[in-house]
Design a protein that fits this description.
homodimer; alpha/beta; six-stranded parallel sheet; 14 helices; 12 strands; 46% helix; elongated; DNA-binding; DNA-binding (chains A, B); LacI/GalR-like_sensor (chains A, B)
DNA sequence: ATGAAAGCGCTAACAG
DNA sequence: CTGTTAGCGCTTTCAT
């Protein structure tokens, strides 16, 4: 590979000049710049990443920690990861992919070695074991998801509390008074990932205000478990006319089982989902839903982290994205409503 | 951050000694090693990645190019990516995440800058535009998926031809004589990704040998398109008793529509899927299937690339993983068979 | 078994 | 506007 020095010689300038045309950190006369750029082309020069990192103590790499565990809805993670990668590139950064496997050790390794300039951490738990380290490091960090205590942290997430509220509001407005929540698998709640609880909280608070009765049931998402869950729901609350589902895997089983039971959607029961748009539009009934803005989350995370890196430390600590509910074919007036 | 020199001073040895205890490239007396290791602990020393890369011209990073496009089944991509990341770590490498977005330019950038020592490319197309560059670079590269011409390349993939054959064999053995193939979306075929064609080829060849009639229909995977596809299939071939599905999105619609039409699985029609285990076991009927060994593909890719990096250039060029068919509840004897 | 020292290729003062 | 130069922290001969 050609080196900076070779380019300099070829262009008849000094090394620093080449360096500066590359970085734009000082003004270069047009002719010089052109000569240098021409030499760069001609020699097929690419700056050496290691040397650059060593000299500037910036690797231009952002580390992204993705969960190893795969019980979350995978396409969302992937979409976030891809959004992070492409947004990062557009800001001149590459992305290092870390799995949760190494846990806190990965944080130490990356910050200690200068491998990455900053870090984006996905799937944060309420009491995440990486939190102390993230607090300690002065390396810019952004979390996707909210831990219990966000003091001193920068986080991005969908406003799940508002999401929950929005779902009941929609159903209440349609006259529904008994609503069942089909939630994530019990394991998700046990792990305290936060978002499930927050949705529930939003749901409950607003339901209380609107006089809607709520029944919450976690659900594995398989046909068997959905079958059981559904029986228990109608057993306990025969008057249930509205469903809020926050569990991608449960959507198809739910719709399918409702159909088999002869309950029409949306004539007999309405269904509102919290899921990616794609899932909502591809289900057997086009679902009224609150979208999970995966792309935007990844993008915002990068922008926040880049702002920190370039010193434009944005004031905001927690960026909560406002939920948007899209009405589709799965929700309608409660039976017996005007 | 502590530097190597500081560790050396702290331990009362020379810098090179510290370097050698780290790399193990020459023998160190036990006491010296201990002193050095102790100092490393005490100072919380982590070697600087940039300096190391510059001095050794090895970054210990493997680049992974994932497709930007999201019309493939995402969980498989994610599973491969995670397998790549964890396997790479276990060999001492980190993984740089590149999206297909930059296209060939990314290859140039990475090889040119020494950012990564090697590259794993996913979702290769038959006539991939990155191929010429990959051929040109002497940087170890492994493809996941097969291009049209694999000469001089190292590739990992499921043996889709054998997969297709396996599927018909299973159905033929059960007495099925008319089989329909529900394939990937037309776009997948148009893009010439190879795997779909190869499955089809295996299917056709073996079907010919076994006297099974085949009907192939691409399918978008939505309920609407599946509905249309299904009608056309039974229209054209009313005697169809077997289905082979290679399209994760089409599975739920297919099962659901068959049920609605009153065709029982597996009593009236048998269904064999080519999909990840998880999808097969979570469908409304537990599916007889050939698994897509995502993890193994990621792992093998890393192992091949690491072998190249460490000079144990394995002889094999194309690693085709043998398909395995697992019989579950969706396939049974053809109606009217003894 | 250990040290000394020469770079690796680039950035960023410091000088004009 | 451009050149000179001193490192950045580590690896790796070459010595001993």
């Amino acid at each position: 590979m050609a080196t900076l020095a070779e380019v300099a010689r070829h262009a008849g300038v000094s090394a620093s000049t080449v360096s500066y045309v590359l970085s734009g950190k000082r003004s270069i006369s047009a002719p010089t710049r052109e000569r240098v750029e021409h030499s760069i082309k001609e020699l097929g020069y690419h700056p050496n990443a290691g040397a650059r990192a060593l000299a500037s103590s910036r690797s231009n790499i952002i580390a992204l920690m993705v969960p190893l565990r795969t019980d979350m809805y995978v396409p969302v993670m992937m979409e976030i990861a891809i959004a992070v990668a492409t947004t990062a590139r557009s800001h001149g950064y590459d992305v290092l992919l870390l799995t949760g496997e190494e846990g806190p050790a990965a944080v130490r390794r990356v910050t200690g070695s200068g491998l990455a300039d900053a870090m984006i951490v996905m799937d944060v738990e309420l009491e995440d074991e990486r939190l102390p380290l993230l607090h300690a490091t002065r390396q810019p960090t952004v979390l996707i998801g909210l831990p219990a205590d966000t003091v001193g942290l920068t986080c991005v997430d969908l406003d799940f509390t508002a999401t929950g509220a929005l779902c009941v509001e929609h159903l209440a407005a349609l006259g529904h008074r008994e609503v069942a929540i089909v939630g994530e698998a019990p394991a998700v709640y046990e792990r305290h990932t936060g978002f499930a609880e927050r949705t529930l909280e939003g749901l409950r608070r607003r339901a209380g205000e609107l006089g809607v009765r709520l029944l919450h049931r976690p659900c594995q998402g398989s046909y068997e478990s959905m079958d059981g869950t559904l029986s228990r729901i109608f057993d306990e609350r025969p008057g249930t006319t509205g469903f809020v589902v926050q569990n991608e895997a449960a959507i198809d089983p739910l719709l399918s089982l409702l159909r088999r039971q002869g309950r029409a959607v949306p004539e007999d029961v309405s269904v509102v989902a919290v899921c990616p748009e794609q899932v909502a539009t591809q289900a057997s009934v086009r679902l009224t839903s609150v979208a999970i803005p995966a792309q935007e989350m990844g993008q915002r995370a990068v922008e926040l982290v880049v702002a920190k890196l370039e010193g434009n430390a944005s004031g905001e600590q927690v960026a909560l994205l406002a939920p948007e509910l899209t009405v589709r074919a799965s929700s309608g007036p409660a039976p017996g409503t005007a």
